[in-house]
UniProtKB/TrEMBL annotation:
It comes from Clastoptera arizonana. Signal peptide: none annotated. SUPFAM superfamilies: Fibronectin type III, Immunoglobulin. GO terms for biological process: sarcomere organization. This is Fibronectin type-III domain-containing protein.
Length: 269
């Protein structure tokens, strides 16, 4: 059941649930679900109100503020090096460290803890999959608790297993070439009641189209959240998006990418 705010229960804009004057019937499992263009994830916790020795939760105002957005320094086939700015809000106690998490729309792992209590604001995350897209967030931690997450990083791609390290000159060239219209969405065709085949044509700078993001959303219900499917450019010109809702209208467009560079979106249908 959805939680309805009342005189005892409130939910902050950052997603914190606050319950005053706990009662026995507040016991139960509480689940929080977060949605983004890259997908969704959820976490659950059990609250047991049974004893007389109740302790107040820490005051969120004493938690650290969120760190700056993680920024990419370098990528390889299996690692990403990131840096971020410390929290700008005053600290109520010294930082214990930073916690990094990542999410990949190419994997079925949900959010993964990549590093715990890192004591610097630069780190190399290893043991990643080649040719895979990732997004990262970072939280600061002090003795009172964890900050809310930073803003999500841009989508970061590890290199193909047979790809050499890319130079800054190549990145700049890709950014310039992909700034023009290099891909056209040519056809959408329903192949089943829950699947649509997306067909496209690359019309320029193909050497810099490492892959394509297929972005789509349900427009029947007026939602604004885009889902995303990632297709590595291996010469194919179509992809079937499955697990869609029956009898539903969808809006599609494509975005070419090269490493960390996203190009100009295609036409939409």
């Amino acid at each position: 059941l959805a939680i309805e705010p009342n005189s005892r229960v409130s939910i902050s804009s950052t997603g914190t649930l606050h319950i005053d004057n706990l009662q026995l019937n507040d016991s139960g499992i509480y689940t929080c679900t977060a949605h983004s263009e890259s997908g969704e994830t959820s976490g659950s916790a059990y609250l047991n109100v049974g004893g007389i020795d109740l302790h107040r939760s820490p005051d969120p105002s004493t938690f650290p503020g969120p760190p700056g957005i993680p920024k990419i320094i370098n990528t390889t086939q299996s690692s990403v090096t990131l840096t971020w700015d410390p929290p700008t809000q005053p600290l109520h106690s010294p930082l214990i460290g930073y916690n990094l998490e990542y999410f990949s729309s190419d994997l079925q792992t949900g959010w993964v803890m990549a590093a715990h209590r890192v004591n610097t604001n630069t780190i190399m995350i290893t043991d990643l999959k080649p040719a895979t897209s990732y997004i990262f967030v970072v939280r600061a931690e002090n003795s009172h608790g964890l900050s809310v997450p930073s803003e999500m990083s841009e989508i970061i791609h590890t290199l193909n297993a047979n790809t050499r390290t890319v130079t800054l000159q190549q990145i700049n060239e890709a950014r310039a070439r992909l700034a023009s219209n290099v891909i056209q969405l040519t056809e959408l065709a329903a192949t089943a009641s829950t699947a649509i085949k997306v067909t496209w044509q690359i019309v320029g700078a193909e050497e810099y189209v490492e892959g394509i993001y297929i972005r789509f959303r349900d427009i029947s219900g007026g939602g604004n959240k885009y889902n995303i499917a990632t297709v590595i450019n291996s010469g194919t010109t179509s992809y079937t998006v499955a697990n869609l809702r029956k009898y539903t209208k969808y809006h599609f467009f494509l975005v070419p990418f090269f490493k960390t560079v996203e190009g100009q979106p295609s036409n939409s249908k």
